[in-house]
């Protein structure tokens, strides 16, 4: 029977210095691989944190720019239209103000289109393609042009009547009523193009209609100087009606051609600029320009109004492209809330308790509708992917 000690002695006798060296190499290889994995894991975590921080930073910047631009834009609108800024007189020339906004918008979108064309030329040069060089206007044809002219004209009327309304009803009422933009868009889409909408859109329309009725029914009797609620409401509803025409036409243009959002903005501003210029000359003449020349301090208001409108428009498109309609709706809803509160505080609007409730209900309905739309879209997409697999 073999002895256990002899086996142990035999094993020990086979261990040589080279064996120790091999074992150390194996151990060091294991440790180095583990350290490498740990370092890679840590670096990937750091990269994820950096990417997340970058995304949050971009979202915060977009949120801040959009809110700031439109809050300032709305504040200057009400300041010029309702408060005496030239001695005892107001600078209430809404058509001229819309004209300046279109002028700056056209300049901004032209710069964007130029930037897109430069990028397309550079990409074509890098690819060394033998195909004919493309331009940013390749998708335009006579049908898109005609629809663009119609959409631009209705957009001019919507913006002008909305600005006129502020003179007579103030920003809070205008914002609440304009929050019902989806109502005429649904009606216009159905009447003009027989377009059908999901059930939650109709529920939201009914809810917002009720909130708007309550907001105006429980309005206090006190009025600012020159306030005319019936005319102001008529202008607001005219603006809504024009939105109901513009929205479906834009949808039709996008259905015909896969237009870039910047190109769509350019088309609206390109066709809208001559329309609003003629309207400004016919309705208000050169009086606003003479007043600005005599009162150079007003130029700052006009330039800031136009610049914030243009910058806000571009950044809204960026939000839609990067984060979708849910995040964009959240931004615009918060902006409307802040604009309303600022207007109530700065311009001493009287608000009843029921008006506060109605305003809150309107904003809550807007966001709830967008959230439900997002959930339904995600669910439908998941079902399509599952059926595809």
From TrEMBL:
Name the major location: endoplasmic reticulum
* Membrane topology category: Multi-pass membrane protein
User: In its keyword annotation, does this UniProt entry include Zinc?
Assistant: no
**Which ranges does the record mark as transmembrane?**
56-76, 96-118, 144-169, 175-193, 200-218, 230-249, 261-283, 298-320
Q: Which GO terms describe its molecular function?
A: UDP-galactose transmembrane transporter activity; UDP-glucose transmembrane transporter activity
Family matches, as InterPro entries: EmrE-like (IPR037185), SCL35B1-4/HUT1 (IPR013657)
Sorted alphabetically, which keywords does the UniProt record give? Answer: Endoplasmic reticulum, Membrane, Transmembrane, Transmembrane helix, Transport
Q: Got a GO cellular component term for this one?
A: endoplasmic reticulum membrane
A Pfam family that this protein carries is: UAA
Query: Where in or outside the cell?
Result: Endoplasmic reticulum membrane
Annotated family:
Belongs to the nucleotide-sugar transporter family. SLC35B subfamily.
Instruction: Cite the PANTHER family for this sequence.
Output: SOLUTE CARRIER FAMILY 35 MEMBER B, SOLUTE CARRIER FAMILY 35 MEMBER B1
Q: Report what the protein is called.
A: UDP-galactose transporter
